[in-house]
Each structure stands twice: as C-alpha cells, then as structure tokens.
Amino acid sequence: MCLLSTGSRVRVPPGSPNISFVFNENLAVIVRYHDFLTLIVVNSAHMLRPIRRHVTGCGNYKKWDVDCPPNTKLKCPLIIVRYEPGPNGRKIRKEKSLGTNDEAVAWQLINQMVVSGETKPADPPKTVEQSIDLFLALEAKRGIGEATLKSFRKFLRGNPKRNPNGNFSPTLLEFAAKQNPARTYLKDFTTDDLTNFRGEWRVHRHALKIQSERLKQFFKFAHDSKWIPENPAAKLKPPKVKEEPVYAFPKEDRDAILHAVSEDDYLLTLNLTMRYSALAPVDIVHLKPQNLHGDRIVTKRRKTNKRVNVKLPPVVVERLKALPIQAGGYWFWNRIGKQSKHETATGNLRRMMRPYFEKASVYQRDEHGEAVYEKDEDTGELRPLLATLYQWRHTFVHEHIMKDTPPSRIAELLGDTLKTVMETYAHFIEERQAQLDKAAERTWNEEELEGFRI
User: Fold this and answer.
1) Residue 170, pLDDT score
2) Strand ranges (DSSP E) for 53-177?
3) pLDDT, tens only, 95-105
C-alpha cells in the first residue's frame, strides 16, 4: 500500500476486499466502493477521534483532551467533536456522545461513521451486564410474574448478597467474566460458549429444561431487539431430560407423614391444610386469617393470579383458628420485616419437614411406585429423593380424578388452567380410565354375547 496526500485516490484491482479502518492518530485509510474501489487518505488534523468527557469524581475533571488517571477503574465516557458550517463562514463546534467508555469500541463507531457518511454515531454494543439489566427491566414493565422474573434473574446475574463460596451454578455474568478472553459484550457469545455455560449448571430434570428455555428466550429477545447481530442460542439443542410424572401420596405415605408430625401442632396444621386445599407452598405461606371465610379458603394463586375458593373439613378449620398468628399476620410465615422474602419462608418449611419425611420413610416415586434416586454430589453415592410438600397438591388432584371430578372443575379448584391439568395429570386420568374400563368389563354378559360370535 502506498501513502498518498490527503484526498488522493487510486484504482485497485477488481475483487479487492472492501475494507475500512481508522489507522492510528496520524492518518485514516478507507477503501470504499463506488463505481470502482478507491483508496482515500484523510488528513489526521481533521480526523474524528474519541475524547474523554471527564465527570465529577474523576482526577482529571475539567481537563480537556487527556485520558483518565491510570489508577481509575471506571473510565469516563467518550465523545467526538465535529465542526459544522455556520453563518458567515464560521464553524460551529458540536460534541456527540459515543455512548461508551471503551476506546476500542469508540474507534469502531467512528470508523462506521466515516464509512457511512453519518454524522451521528451508531449505538455502541451492549455489555453483558447492560443487556441483562435492560432485559429484566423491560420484562418487569411488561408485567410478567415475579416468580418468572426471579428465575431469569437467578441464572443471569444472581443475588448480589449470595455467598460467593456457595455451591451455586455460575450466572451468565460470572461465566462471561471468567472466560479468556472475557466476554465483555453480549455479541461476543458463541453457541459453544452457551453450551459450556449450561454444562456448569447444578440444576437437574425439569429445572434444567425450564432454565435452558429461558436462556434461549433471553438471547432471542436480545437478537430481536438488535442488541446482537446473531443469536448464538438459536442452534442450542435442548437438554435430554427424562420427565418424571408427578406422584401422589398413597394412603400409607399420607398416614405416615401425618403420624410423624402429629406431636407438632404447627406442622400438623400445615400438612392438613395443604392436603385439603391443594395450595402450593408459596401460597400457603401467604395465608392469613382474612383468607378463611367460614369453612372456606379464598385467596389468589401467586403464580397464576387466579382466584381459589376451596372448602375445608371442619377439623382443619378448627386447627387453623387455634394456630397462633405470626409476625406480619400470617399463619405459616414469621415475616418480621418487609425485606423478608417468601422464598425464605418456603425454604424454612422444606427444611422443617425434611427430618419428618426421613422419619416416615416417604420418598418421591416414579410411575411404577419405585423410589427415585439421585447421585450425591459429594460422595457420588445414590440416595433416594425425599418427598416434598408440593406432593400434597398432586394428591389432591389424584383423589378428585378418582372421584370423577371434571378436569375443568379441578383446574378451578387449583387456580390453574385446564391445559396444565390435562398435561400434568394425564397419567392420573389414564389410571381412572383404566378403572372405568374394568368396571365396564364387569358389566358385560359373556353368556349373552357368546351366541353372537362371528
């Protein structure tokens, strides 16, 4: 390549690459396509370049055309200065923000301006942190449920107060920072990066499937919003997850659990209320005396915001009325301060019930009634999974299906949709159908039918 005087042009052979770049502080070289390829050399005296606009708190505040002090962690934003024609042959000085404090990105934006002829810089690429924060803010404004928003926040940026040495899955923000080189901008992610990121998660089964779907949702949103030129999650294959059908407590398990907690009025009332109301743990901790209308629980599901109105047996009503009310006016949540979260309350209930499930030897089971096992991450040994409080909800549905309650009515009692009931509890419905088929077979008159064989 030869160096020419400012504004000169030379022809280059056809097929030469159409490139553009800003050279150093001395000159800018651009190859542009018009009728033919042309080489243009621009005098550096008129070249756009990024300049720091120092903010309050910077050691070089009110100084011009100098960089931030070397010990400054967060650099000041970058701007460009343009001189545009004004009246009487004068030039008007105009400053434009580049929207970034990264010098390499600033040069890229200036290069794009020179090539395109635009006087306004393009939007800078969004960092991973900016993308996450903006996505969560926009989703919150869209009105999605807090539970869904929390599930996004959990794997995108995590709880800032969580133990850094805890046995948690890395967040997208943490994963991006520890890569070599670090994935500073969201556009830096590749499909391989996301595959490796998912491989470090410590979630399993249904939770793994849901979190994978939400990772794809996040990157699709970013691509649709033009934050990234390509969607690296588009080719991300779903994880292979064996979906275990939900399991209802059989009579022997129900009796064992209630017997194990029989000496504890609080836990006995908790289990009886969940057994006959089908409320999920997140809903049970929000129960207040105001939700008890005579012999009925009337409340709204936290997940679906649907109204629930379910009748309770007199014994359960008596126990609820006798139960001491805790801080915040709740029965099953000692909410001392406004900052107390329901996740803490439901977690406490799970921890309180764990020894009682062990005492009663009640475990999660598959469709064949066999205990479900998982590998202990510390010892590598297989151990049976303990039952959960949520299985009272499945038990409620199972009993209603066996009593021929219509699925639409069950959905109403659960505060859920008919679609969810039909998909989640399809095997219960098949079980009931098998019972009805056997009952129908018992009514067949074989002797009568024998005479009509073909």
Assistant:
1) 87
2) 78-85, 91-97
3) 888 888 888 77
Length of the chain: 454
Indicate the pTM of the whole model. Answer: 0.62
Contact of 4 with 40, CB cutoff 8 Å? no
Judge contact between 68 and 58, C-beta under 8 A.
yes
Whole-angstrom Cα distance, residue 436 to residue 291? Answer: 37
Give the residue from 46, 16, 15 showing the smallest Cα distance to 28. Answer: 46
User: Where do the domains of the chain lie, and which CATH numbers do they carry?
Assistant: 20-116 (no CATH), 128-224 (1.10.150), 251-389 (1.10.443.10)
Residue 250 pLDDT exceeds 70: yes
Residue pair 110/133 in contact by the 8 Å Cβ criterion: no
| Residue showing tokens 């460009």 | 80
> Among 58, 60, 49, which Cα is nearest to 95's?
49
With contact defined as beta carbons under 8 Å apart, do 92 and 136 qualify?
no
For residue range 169-187, list pLDDT tens digits in order.
Answer: 888 999 998 888 888 889 9
